[in-house]
Amino acid sequence: MRDVVDGRNRVAHKLLAHMPAIAILVVFLFVGTLYVAYTPIWQAPDEPAHYNYIRALGEGRGLPVMAPGDYDQAYLERLTAERFPPDLSIAPLEYEDHQPPLYYLLATPVYWLFQGSVRALRLFSLLLGGVAVALIFLILREFIPDRPGVAWLGGGVVAFIPQFVAMMASINNDALLLALLWLWLWLALRYLRGKVSPWVLGGVAGALLLTKTTGYGVLPLTAVVLYLRYRRAGMPGRWIASQALALFLPAVALGAVWWTRNLAVYGWPDLMGLQQHNALVTGQPRAFDRIAQQGAIAFLIDAVRTTFRSFWGQFGWMGVVVDVRIYLGLAVFSFLTFYGACWRLIESLRQGMRPRQRDALILLGTAALITFALFVGYNITFVQHQGRYLFPALPLLALGAAFGWARLVERRLAVGTGLALGFAVIVMGAVGLIIGDLAVWPMALIGAAAVGLPLLAFVPQRAQGLLAGGLLVGLVALDLWCLFGFIVPLLAVSA
């Protein structure tokens, strides 16, 4: 009897310890459900094309094939301009038919069960998004198990990025991609400690290859993991060969199923259907054409601005921007987060990291670099300055956000940063008076940070959790403001 009571107490203690993370996950699902319910139908990037892929499977037509006519730029522009009126069919939008099938196959039973309901399929994606958020917590706990506050703060920042919520609450394969990628990263960190079989890691990698073309970044990541494990274990070459076989064979075997199908329908060497896709999406803006029109500098400025805005929140089909003051506030927040994270990183390098932390940082950093490289590569061909393509790098950004703000509110750095920001406001004011154009709102935001940071530094240590909670509450409020202040009123179909 005593053992039973002790067991129940241990379970209760574990639940209590994880309560902040559980609360964040519940709030994420609640806010996401609001996005599911209130975001006007089809008003998420490529949602109709993803839906048509699922519909083809649900109606028994088999895996769709990318064919001429699947992408009509003029018709797509008409649909988005008129906010997808009911009298205009979305059936011609089938330009996602080149995508690997796993997400769509998993969504097909939902399509059957709820008779093709768009919102039911959105909820399916949202649940996958919830799994992805939970995996952020697990990844950060692997990095530093003795500081759970870091995990739930970093995970909370990710969970409540407005654009992340909007994308997870729509029909798209990004939700499964992120869930599988972050599952792979978590398992990889455990594999480095000898707690996960390489065959399991290879199987998840294979699932990524069957989810989205950007999931192929897992292959170089697998090579990095193998190197880190070898460096730590110092095992002979035969051991390395056996590990490489277990890591790569399941991935290649699963990927080969899809490659074989594509060779049968598209021909050599179009293993992933990308050549067929790129040949058919005529009319989509091309990077070099835009550079010729704007000039390289103007193009780069527009790319950076649009990427930043759409990372945080640029909704619909990139047509709904929020109040510029919100973006300025987020820019200040992002800068301070990056600044604090850099200080933390420099100090950690000076003091030395534990092996598990060093390996985790290398792995998450490599994942972020691969994500950025894929983003740049895509934008070299097409004009696709969409910040959501950077979401696979969110585990590293979550780590930086949590540690950055923890370092930023430490007294010495907070006071010094506050003084520097105050001086910056004075300089901005002087320059504004000289040129006759005061940047009032940026000055107000930076001034608020100059005053607020030193004040936060004097908050007692036991109240630091309340500050983190306040930050997350602010992000939730921003989520609701974006939904009801911009998405709903600006994207609803006119009566």
Low-confidence spans: none
What pattern of helices and strands is seen along the backbone?
A: HHHHHHHHHHHHHHHEEHHHHHH
**Terminal residue distance:** 66 Å
Q: What class do helices, strands and sheet pairing give?
A: mainly alpha
Percent helix, as a range, is over 70%
Counted by DSSP, the helix tally is 21
What's the total count of β strands? 2
- Computed over alpha carbons, the radius of gyration is 24 Å
Let me know the average pLDDT.
90
Q: Summarize the main sheet.
A: 2 strands, antiparallel
What is the 3D form? globular
Strands of the largest sheet, in order across it? 1-2
Please state roughly what percent of the residues sit in beta strands, choosing from under 5%, 5-15%, 15-25%, 25-35%, 35-45% or over 45%.
Answer: under 5%
Quaternary form: single chain
Task: Describe the structure in your own words.
With 495 residues, the chain is mainly alpha-helical. The chain has a domain at 173-280. Helices cover 73% and strands 1% of the residues. The protein is built from 21 helices and two strands.
